[in-house]
Specification:
alpha/beta, about 40% helix
């Protein structure tokens, strides 16, 4: 009997895997903790497209295309929904799905979009009033570039493909070529994001050490010199395009060092933090306000709770957005800057180029809907949950808990990628059920 039960569970586990896998090829309950109960209160008169609480601020949906990149047909269906849910634009991290050409053609994956595909994606975004900000890596997270043998000599550390050597003129030329090709297909872009986060290796190679010794400079200054060179190139070549970058490499720097670099006139930092409970303090914003006139924030609607996670814990990400709303309060924090640009709501597909897939975009649409509306309204409540749930076709309120599992599947839902959503929830149930069988003798 035990063997029969295991076969039955394995059969259903396989069915769940096949559902998710099949749709991927086609795509290329309320929390009960006291914190959420205190915030989620009933409020009448809410609608998805009502008056905006923070008009003029961006709410960008981050499309991380380095894993399970969708087909154009999916974008055609989901972009109108993004707009309806409160998105104002897209932060598109193309990585190796961008159709690099010429000397850079090796960077394009065999599954990369074509130039016509990119044109279509931008047209679909424009049709739905979604501004597109392209993201191209220029310092760290360069695995998709530096893994190719032809570019090995541009690495900062020979055995690691994650960071370029900023003292290698050929590496700098390579980055500029990547930017030039990106801008060729994004000629109307008002912003470009140059990444520059998590640069694990700076000032390590002999060339960089010699450069720092000669200039009597630090690793921080070396980092800023490279960013300045790239940002200056963009300003010279594309004067109508503002430069955005991740902020984390600035966090340990002092105000004097950052001011001396001149980056305050060249880049706009995007402060990222994806945890439910914040570990950033307001001193960081005071420091940035002394250097940078404009600032962005980056929250997360998926892909921030584990590199192998498959089901989005909506409640966790809702707490992340509550934390952001408290952190960037309109009375004290925002007025320090000339302009608070708004939010990028990130949704990571992989933690890095070599990482496994984590939560898939279609599976996280309910989370995205709730996070976008929370930013749009500056609040979240039962009325909002009910309206969002009905808009996505649920016959009951969306469950904000991913765990514990197994749990009953929703019986009704209707949004782009719903089959992936159902398949992933089923897979999550069967993973737990199978583990219970293997770890316990309850079925014997």
């Amino acid at each position: 009997m035990m063997q029969g039960l295991i076969r039955w569970k394995l059969k259903h586990l396989l069915v769940a895997v096949l559902i998710v896998t099949g749709v991927l090829f086609g795509l290329r309950t309320l929390r009960t903790d006291k914190h959420v109960e205190a915030v989620v209160q009933k409020r009448h008169g809410y609608s998805l497209n009502g008056t905006e609480q923070f008009a003029g601020e961006h709410r960008l949906v981050h499309l991380d295309l380095k894993g399970a990149a969708p087909k154009l047909s999916y974008f055609e269906k989901v972009f109108p929904l993004f707009r309806e849910l409160g998105a104002t634009g897209l932060l598109i991290e193309w990585e190796d799905t961008f159709p690099y050409w010429g000397e850079l053609s090796v960077l394009a994956s065999p599954l990369a979009y074509s130039k016509n595909d990119v044109k279509t994606i931008l047209e679909l975004a424009s049709k739905n009033s979604l501004e597109v900000i392209p993201l191209v890596q220029t310092f760290g997270h360069m695995e998709f570039v530096l893994k190719h043998k032809v570019f090995w000599d541009r690495r900062e550390v020979d055995q690691y493909p994650n960071a370029i050597c900023p003292s290698n003129t050929e590496a700098v030329v390579l980055v500029k070529q990547m930017i030039a090709q990106m801008m060729t297909l994004h000629q109307s872009a008002k912003f470009i994001h140059i990444g520059a986060d998590e640069v694990w290796h700076v000032g390590v190679c002999p060339r960089c050490k010699q450069r720092m010794h000669k200039a009597d400079s630090t690793k921080e200054q070396l980092f800023m010199d490279h960013v300045k060179a790239i940002a200056s190139f963009i300003k010279e070549q594309y004067p109508r395009t503002a430069v955005v970058m991740w902020d984390d490499m600035f966090r340990t720097m002092d105000v004097a060092t950052m001011k001396e670099s001149g980056l305050g006139k060249l880049v706009e930092p995007m402060v990222w933090h994806y945890r439910a409970q914040f570990s950033l303090d307001h001193d960081l914003l005071h420091k940035y306000a002394a250097v940078f006139p404009n600032i962005w924030a980056a929250s997360a609607f998926k892909g921030a709770t584990g590199p192998r996670e498959i089901i989005t814990d909506i409640g966790y990400h809702l707490d992340n957005h509550f934390s952001w709303l408290r952190y960037f309060d309109r009375k004290n924090t925002v007025p320090q800057f000339a302009k608070f640009r708004g939010y990028a709501v990130t949704g990571w597909q992989r933690y890095d180029h070599y990482g496994t897939l984590c939560e898939l975009l279609p599976q996280a649409i309910p989370s995205l809907a709730i996070c976008l509306q929370t930013l749009r309204e500056g609040d979240f409540n039962n009325d909002m949950l009910e309206v969002i749930s009905k808009r996505l076709g649920f016959d009951h309120n969306i469950d904000l808990h991913a765990y514990p599992r197994p749990k009953p599947l929703p019986t009704s839902f209707n949004f782009p990628g719903q089959d992936v959503y159902k398949g992933v929830l089923l897979l999550g149930n069967h993973q737990v059920e199978l583990q219970n069988i293997l770890n316990n003798d309850v079925y014997v």
